[in-house]
Design brief:
heterodimer, A: 114 residues, mainly beta, seven-stranded mixed sheet, four-stranded antiparallel sheet, 11 strands, globular, B: 115 residues, 9 strands, 0% helix, 43% strand
Chain lengths: 114, 115
């Protein structure tokens, strides 16, 4: 079965650079979530989108922005990168606006900021 | 969403049942209990959820106490591949004022299955 696809899987950036992560949800899933997981930390919710509109916002820094496109894929844009942004970034998708609470996660994108 | 409390770590012998407890004493009547697990550095994986009845699927069983203040996730025959961090999450559905499905992960239980 198709899963959530994230790209790139690994990314290395310098401080103050910009990075973009992409997420392709499972077909027919209309809701996308972004989570950040720092070293030794639990996943922290950043932001979610339902039918291309932002549906919920968590602890996403102002330097980060995200959007969901007409084909339901989503991109997380991170600017002025800091060392503390080094983390695993997970995308998850779910159908029907997420009412079931069963989220399907991708394998993550590992961002390293040097 | 109600706060949940789990032991930080547990060990289990391979082939034995793993019983992971979760306390959610402040859970409201319309909040479901969800269990996810995260194998090292992989994306979290949904296991099971329930409201008040016990639930079973191909992965696990979920036992919820009658007063709903606690629950236990049971892996009937743990294998080495079940070594992971297990998260218990209380969540209110959208129709009862819950958020758009996002899950808030707290401190889970690190389960180590040993040969």
């Amino acid at each position: 079965a198709a899963g959530v696809i994230q790209s790139p899987r690994h990314l290395i950036k310098e401080k103050r650079e910009t990075a973009t992560l992409k997420c392709y949800p499972i077909p027919r899933h209309d809701t996308v979530y972004w989570y950040q997981q720092g070293p030794g930390q639990d996943p922290q919710f950043l932001i979610s989108f339902y039918e291309k509109m932002q549906s919920d916002k968590g602890s996403i820094p102002d330097r980060f922005s995200a959007q969901q496109f007409s084909d339901y894929h989503s991109e997380l844009n991170m600017s002025s990168l800091e060392l503390g942004d080094s983390a695993l970034y997970f995308c998850a998708s779910t159908p029907h606006g997420g009412n079931t609470g069963e989220l399907f996660f991708g394998e993550g994108s590992r961002l390293t900021v040097l | 969403d109600a706060k949940t409390t789990q032991p930080p770590s547990m060990d289990c012998a391979e082939g034995r049942a793993a019983n992971l407890p979760c306390n959610h004493s402040t859970i409201s009547g319309n909040e479901y209990v969800y269990w996810y697990r995260q194998i090292h550095s992989q994306g979290p994986q949904y296991i099971i959820h329930g409201l008040k009845n016990n639930e079973t699927n191909e992965m696990a069983s979920l036992i919820i106490t009658e007063d709903r203040k606690s629950s236990t996730l049971i892996l009937p025959h743990a294998t080495l591949r079940d070594t992971a961090v297990y998260y218990c999450i209380a969540r209110k559905p959208l129709e009862y004022g819950g958020s758009q499905g996002n899950l808030i992960f707290g401190k889970g239980t690190k389960l180590s299955v040993k040969p």
